[in-house]
Amino acid sequence: MFGYYLDLAVRSFRRNRVLTALMVLALGLGIGASITTLTVLKLLSGDPLPHKSARVFAPEIDPLPADSTTKPADLWRGWGNIMSYTDAMNLLRAHRAERQAAMALTPVKVRPQQAGEHPFFSNGVMTTAAFFAMFDVPFEYGGGWSEQDGEDRARVAVIAAELNDKLFGGKNSVGQTVRVNDHDYRIVGVAGKWAPQPRFYAVSLGGRGYGDGDAVFLPLQSGSADKMNPQNVNCWQVADITSLETAPCAWVSLWVELESAADAGAYKTFLSNYVAQQISLGRFHHPEVALPDLADYLAQQQVVPSDARLQANLAFGFLLICVVNTVGLLLAKCLRRSREIGVRRALGATRSAIFAQFMIESAMVGVAGGVLGLVFAELGLWAVRHQPAQYASLAHLDLAMFALTFVVALIASLVAGLLPAWRACVVAPAPQLKAV
Amino acid sequence: MEIRPIISTLRRHKLTATLLTLQVAFTCAIVCNVAFMIANRVQQVSLPSGLDENVLSVIHSTGIGPDAETNPWAQHEADLAALRAIPGVESVVAVSYALPLNRNEWSSGTCPDKQALDRAMQVMSMHGTGCIDSSIYNGSPGLIPTLGLNLVVGRNFLPDEYVLGQKTPPVAIISQALAHRFYPGQDPLGKEMYNGAKSPIRVIGVVKTLLRPNLHGTGTNYDSIIWPQKPNSPGSDYVMRSAPQNRERILKAAKAALLKVNPSRIINPKYTQTYTQIRAEYFQRDTTMIGLLIASALGLLFVTALGITGLANFWVGQRTRSIGIRRAIGATRGDILRYFQTENFLIVTFGVVLGVLLSIGLNLLLMQHYELPRLPLWYLPVGAGMLWLLGQLAVLAPALRASRVPPVVATRSV
């Protein structure tokens, strides 16, 4: 039966070639636009640490002065988990979480050792020892530095594989030195490919939200001693920013990894106690603390650009209109075929057979629309990749999206076919035959 | 034209007519809002900066090595001389890093007078004190003519008013927007501003327009101040003025000239740009969005026109016989044409009425989620007019086909 319905559908399409083509084109456009924007949205709202995002938390405290008349909650929520060096170090050294790391981003000048090579700027991260284990950074050679190295302000560094290729031709460079901001840093490790998307740890530090990983990692204390400038400094009082370690400025972010998500309550209590203690010392004035997990933190920081969401909504609006359009055209087409339906009914076809026939016809429009939609989606993503946006190079259609295209296409066309098919199957055969 | 027969026909095609009405309504709602979004973005993208952007280009250089820190200004002077010698360069200035739309902002709370400063110091906040977070620009002598800023009141800086590096100068030039916010209804010249707890800064001039390095929102985008301060750190931006067509060549020559003066520096190709590129880069997301919005609006209109034409075609086919009968009993071709046009007009009108309500609803939704302003009401009649026109254009071909149905069809049995 199925084959016969297919044959009937093809015949019906042949009779109205232009109209069928336009229907498929409209549906394809709608599906292509939806899949393109959905792919981008999915890419932008991905989970950067899939295995442990529920156990990684961002402690947030409020250092603002007591009588700041603006709504402080809004202000410090906007800052996210950045805090002063003093507070970050106090919380870090308390060792109340399984792992904890403080960090800041800094642009670094790297000068190659070979003669004739020009120096260049690279992206640096000043951080503490647990960064690599907490964020699952893989190593090609060597490893991270120890906590003691950090406390000693040792000039040690981890470089990314890409920089290692550029400076040392990809060979094991552990033990060599890299010249960073006119200081020699000893390489202790070469990190493998590591670029979580979104770059959650960079968001509150003034870094890009998406894109390539960073090139140089060095101890926070050492970088600070060598006067490397953090990318984002927020001061809440008139401050001497030449001595950032003691200034009333937030520029270090803190992340903690807990043994399980259930420990968040205990850590939050510790955080509250710390803030209470600082209030009694006169340093702090607001007792509010927050401890969002990674997903909540990304939502709170509004990492996904609102344009991407707007585009997706727009694409679905477009698809909706395309579907309404298809319903109208299919309906008109099927009403015109009342006589054919009457003949089929009179010859013994049941209502469900007529219904099935028309649903198969619209499903075929859907599948064709899906194939065309896939072409449009690939075109759309190709266009996205050629945009100078941060996430451009990551926009690719994956298998799940490929499958989703057809699911969307089939659902859209079946929804569109429902009403015409129903109208077709309730056609009373007798009047149609009488007219002949 | 008799409307009753049209209505009674439409009643018999309730479902299809409703679907078409719905499609027109959705299209009207989306297209009105999309058009409004496009207008907003276009306005954003074309915000004037106050600079002669089409004659400016910028090159960034950072000195490295131990010598770079010792006397950066001397290095900048040597660099400026070398850049000035490039044929085609009319003038060149050095700025620390901040320029309109280049995202490198130096903003600082500035108070219009001593009382405001005292209030701000007391509550340790600028809120409600009259002090305003403003962007500060600096640069070597000649900044105002090189950038092409329009000095509307007062005078330019004198050579002895310039300070070096981190020092605060005694005088400043402010933007007209900031002058209005600081000293409403007063003459800003000679007023003393305060930046932190230091000595006062006297206002000696007002420039008409000067956009900030980052946009902060309507009403604060032009709060800028120029300090007579020569850059004195290893990194600096050099702004060169030249004929528009020479800019690309001059940027290449500038890189070579700077490396010749002193090779131990980094010239980041990312920050070697004409001003046109700086603006394009700043608004890159908006321009992409404008393109997408236009494409989707056109796509929607196209699909809707397609729907109208398709349906009208079917209706003409379905009614060939009745059209023939009408022609046979005296209807002219024009009558038939007008019949289909009126029918379309009625459907689109229903759709537009519903669409206007939907537009307002959609706008309220967008205002909630995307900080879009309220849709000006005049968009609605314009949108409605456009859909009427679209409907008439889409129905024209099928209606003409209908009008060509010969009366003899009435006598044929199918």
Report on the structure:
The complex is a heterodimer of chains A (436) and B (414). Chain A has 436 residues and is of the alpha+beta class. Chain A folds into 2 domains: 175 residues, no CATH class; 245 residues, no CATH class. Chain A has 15 helices and 14 strands. In chain A, the strands form 3 sheets. Chain A has a 6-stranded mixed barrel with strand order 4-5-10-7-9-8. A two-stranded antiparallel sheet of chain A has the order 2-14. In chain A, strand 4 and strand 5 form a beta hairpin. Chain B has 414 residues and is of the alpha+beta class. Chain B folds into 2 domains: 170 residues, no CATH class; 134 residues, no CATH class. Chain B is built from 12 helices and 14 strands. In chain B, the strands form 3 sheets. In chain B, strands 3, 4, 5, 7, 8, 9 and 10 form a 7-stranded mixed sheet that branches. In chain B, strands 1, 2, 12, 13 and 14 form a 5-stranded antiparallel sheet that branches. In chain B, a hairpin with a 7-residue loop joins strand 8 and strand 9. In chain B, helix 2 packs antiparallel against helix 9 and helix 2 packs across helix 12. The mean pLDDT of chain B is 89. At the A-B interface, helix 2 and helix 11 of A face helix 2 and helix 9 of B.
